[in-house]
Design a protein that fits this description.
With about 260 residues, the chain is an all-alpha fold. The chain contains 16 helices and no strands. Helix 8 packs antiparallel against helix 9 and helix 13 packs antiparallel against helix 14. The longest helix is centred in the middle third of the chain and has 14 residues. The protein is globular. The N and C termini lie far apart (about 55 Å).
């Protein structure tokens, strides 16, 4: 019996609204012995997701058997978060961090609990610890860049964004943050160059095309927004960002005819 396939099928059914069939699969899994605690944790996670209260016990047992197992600890924290048991989720993450020889995953997990409970300063403290051990940890860098921007600490945000782009010059999330920073500083030159360079490697990717159009729009280069989107055959499924930027550009250019045509 392929337990992983059963869970995958059951989760797909649950997400599509066929909850009774998914529950039947979840109950069927009780008939099998699990080859290891990772499998036990996965089954427990599936059961929790489908509303089976026995799932939590399976994950707790997996962590009890293997206290430093990453998959089991992650599954248990996620289960507690799903059940709004935030204190228990944090306790699991901190216990794992204390007992683990490599605490990065556990520290990130603790940070995610703090993020979910809106304790962002505590999340920042955790992720700074991560960066002290692994300076290229993208999740931590992106969170800190976003938080510093939200805190109006633009120079610090900019430093984190630049660090991400040093690691991967095509990181689209960092490039989006770079546009926001440029907007605050009213200086789009460097960001435009970076995005144009990134777009040159992703010319068929609508996300990068929209990113390029966005930096042009924010810097007042409305004709270039329209040129960027010139080859798009838009319909009702096209991203709303396309319509916002294109219509906005026509309005800025006082092009009433094309605005009304859209």
């Amino acid at each position: 019996v392929n337990i992983d396939l059963m869970m995958l099928t059951g989760m797909d059914l649950y997400k599509s609204g066929q909850t009774e069939v998914a529950s039947t699969i979840a109950n069927k899994l009780d008939e099998y012995e699990f080859k290891d605690d990772v499998t036990r944790a996965k089954v427990g996670q599936f059961k929790v997701a489908t509303g089976d209260e026995l799932g939590l016990k399976l994950i707790e047992d997996a962590v009890s058997n293997e206290p430093t197992n990453p998959q089991a600890n992650i599954a248990l924290v996620q289960a507690y978060l799903q059940l709004d048991e935030y204190d228990k989720a944090l306790e699991v993450a901190n216990t794992w961090k204390k007992n683990s020889s490599n605490s990065i995953n556990a520290t990130v997990l603790a940070a995610k609990v703090y993020i979910q409970t809106k304790q962002l300063d505590l999340a920042e403290k955790e992720l700074l610890q991560v960066l002290s051990q692994k300076s290229d940890h993208l999740y931590s860098l992106y969170f800190l860049a976003s938080k510093k921007l939200s805190d109006k600490k633009v120079n610090e945000a900019h430093a984190y964004v630049n660090r991400i782009l040093e690691l991967n010059k095509d990181n689209i999330k960092a490039l989006r943050l770079a546009i926001n920073i440029s907007k605050i500083n009213n200086d789009f030159e460097a960001t435009s160059v970076k995005i144009e360079d990134s777009y040159s490697r992703h010319t068929n990717d609508l996300a990068y095309k929209t990113l390029l159009a966005k930096v042009y729009f924010e810097s007042g280069r409305f004709d270039e927004v329209l040129n960027t989107y010139d080859d798009i055959k838009a319909d009702e499924t096209t991203s709303e960002h396309y319509w916002i930027l294109k219509i906005g550009s026509y309005i800025k250019l006082n092009d009433t005819k094309n605005t009304e045509a859209l």
